[in-house]
């Protein structure tokens, strides 16, 4: 299976400790690349991922699947305290919606 490195999830952030931009790849959490400007940080992390994928393939190891290629069902289970469950159930009832709809709405409000 061919995995294109451009399908991975990249992030750029600033490091106060290093006083540099940091390039990250979500699928490879142990990798990072520091650079003075964001463009170089992105280029650096992309090259590092490319090299890592090549090394994994050369040693017949599993290459992480890009998050963008994964299929999601839209279902997941979350455990909360009984008190939180009760509070949310009351809020849902008072709002006239299902507990699922209330929690989905709350999650959608927190998206970046």
Produce a short descriptive summary.
With 112 residues, this protein is an alpha+beta fold.
Keyword list:
Double Stranded RNA Binding Domain; 3 helices; 3 strands; about 15% strand; elongated
Contiguous low-pLDDT stretches (5 residues minimum) are: none
Structural class: alpha+beta
Radius of gyration: 20 Å
How many helices?
3
For the termini, the CA-CA separation is 32 Å
Mean pLDDT: 93
Query: What is the second-level CATH architecture of the largest domain?
Result: 2-Layer Sandwich
The CATH topology of the largest domain is Double Stranded RNA Binding Domain
What's the level 1 CATH class of the largest domain? Alpha Beta
What can be said about the biggest beta sheet?
3 strands, antiparallel
Using the alpha-carbon principal axes, give the shape: elongated
Tally of domains: 2
Helix content: 40-55%
Record field, number of beta strands: 3
Please trace the helix and strand order, writing H or E for each element.
EEEHHH
Strand content: 5-15%
Descriptive account of the structure:
The protein is α+β, with helices and mostly antiparallel strands and 112 residues long. It has two domains: 5-68, Double Stranded RNA Binding Domain; 72-109, no CATH class. Helix content is 41%, strand content 14%. The chain is built from three helices and three strands. It has helices spanning 38-58, 82-95, 99-109, and strands at residues 10-15, 20-25, 32-35. A three-stranded antiparallel β-sheet has the order 1-2-3. Strand 1 (10-15) and strand 2 form a beta hairpin. Helix 2 crosses helix 3. It is elongated, with a radius of gyration of 20 Å. The two termini are 32 Å apart. 7% of the residues are buried. The model has no long low-confidence stretch (mean pLDDT 93).
């Amino acid at each position: 299976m061919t995995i294109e490195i451009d399908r991975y999830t990249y992030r750029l952030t600033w490091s106060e400790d290093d006083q540099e931009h940091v390039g990250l790849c979500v699928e490879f959490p142990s990798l990072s690349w520091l650079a003075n400007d964001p463009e170089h940080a992105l280029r650096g992390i992309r090259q590092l991922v490319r090299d890592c994928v090549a090394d994994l393939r050369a040693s017949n190891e599993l290459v992480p699947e890009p998050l963008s290629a994964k299929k999601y069902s839209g279902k997941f289970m979350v455990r909360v305290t009984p008190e939180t469950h009760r509070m949310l159930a009351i809020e849902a009832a008072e709002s006239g919606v299902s507990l699922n709809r209330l929690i989905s709405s709350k999650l959608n409000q927190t998206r970046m």
